């Protein structure tokens, strides 16, 4: 029987690498009888955005009709189909019903989960990467409240509350068609999670001949705080969504600041550990009682107690933030240099040096503006020509 695998998330559970591998190797997969329907890398994201009807920095305009197109492609295929995006976890019961009723074949839902002690800081810094302005302490306060009041935390629970997500997506399916993939703990082989996904999808790893270099890396504490401060200054009216995605999320976050050695890792505070551990135990018991197919080990979801010497990213020192600002200015200088037209292309109304000066002033912020200008003044005068 034809099978359709719906991988619904959760965010920060290895989804980016899996989706990139499937996209890059979609022709080989098709030859093996597996369809990953995508003409562009983010097609499944746009389809999920269309299904959920969410606004997303203007990208929702590109998403109109994409879900129906994706489903039509899936229904036209006689073999196995894989649809994957992590924001699908947030679908409402009505949206889930629309999705499942439209798909022809035996539907299997895959939900990948990681322990809450890692997901909580990961979701906060991921939100900052997507232009959120909430401090970590504000995030944690709302997180642990009985009824979260902010859209940020309402989103968090809509994609990270394992029992509730699976209530919505799995209630009409036989339990053997609901697969829970656990994310291995730190230190495990990087291939272990991928192998778990492939086992569920019944994909031969030999079909994945093109490797993926794509990832969704994390930021350190000071790095996240500096980006959050930029978000407070760079409103969507001053820096449009496409420019923010390129310059901030891609150039600054992914290419410059993410996964740098020696940065302070963001963790939950020790005071939150007992609540996280208790919640996790309740959730694990709920999953065990449902008869789902567990790929991995539910014990991997139990949180590790955080260090007593907890680092608060909201209290990142001026020196730490200044070091981050230097790296940001350097990255923007190199980006501007790469975009400079060839010599002799004609007069410019604004020189490169003036652009660098303006960028440095905007990005530095009140506490580090002076240092930013000192960096600017050390830029060779030839940049102005």
Mean pLDDT: 90
Shape category: globular
Main sheet specs: 6 strands, parallel
Radius of gyration in whole Å, from Cα? 23 Å
Tally of structural domains:
2
The poorly predicted ranges are: 379-385
**Helical percent range?**
40-55%
Alpha plus pi helix count: 17
Instruction: Give me the strand/helix succession.
Output: EHHEHHHEHEHHHHEHHHHEHHH
CATH superfamily membership of the largest domain, which one? P-loop containing nucleotide triphosphate hydrolases
Count of extended strands: 6
Reading side by side through the largest sheet, how are the strands ordered? 2-3-1-4-5-6
Q: Could you say what the CATH topology of the largest domain is called?
A: Rossmann fold
CATH-level-2 architecture of the largest domain: 3-Layer(aba) Sandwich
